[in-house]
Design goal:
This protein is mainly alpha-helical. It contains three helices and no strands. The chain is globular, with a radius of gyration of 15 Å. α1 (8-23) crosses α2. It has helices spanning 8-23, 47-61, 78-98. It starts with 7 loop residues before the first helix and ends in an 8-residue tail after the last helix.
């Protein structure tokens, strides 16, 4: 599922829903705010679940997240993660088009 760009609050709620479902923390959902710390703060978020979370975000938003785009500060807070996802959603139609060479040439 993708969202149209330009609605940060909708992106935040969608990212929050993916985080809650991936980490299985439904009991904490109401307490999660943009300032909520993620990596190092939520015991459920370790290096393995970071990978699961990235895959889930890619599927939910129809985006590609490359390994070199992943910096530790993306997972500092839920708000930062949502902002990163929103930037990828905005960029995807343009960024995705630049990765393929015209005519299939490599």
């Amino acid at each position: 599922m993708t969202r149209s760009p330009g609605n940060p609050e909708a992106h935040f709620e969608d990212v929050k829903a993916v985080v809650v479902a991936t980490l299985n923390i439904e009991d904490q959902a109401d307490d999660l705010e943009p300032e909520t710390g993620l990596y190092g703060n939520l015991a459920e978020l370790d290096s393995l679940t970071v990978v699961r979370l990235i895959v889930a975000l890619q599927k939910r938003f129809g985006i590609e997240i490359k390994i070199d785009e992943i910096a530790g500060d993306i997972f500092d807070t839920l708000g930062r993660l949502a902002a990163f996802v929103e930037s990828r959603v905005r960029c995807e139609p343009l960024c995705g088009a630049t990765t393929a060479a015209p005519g299939g040439a490599r």
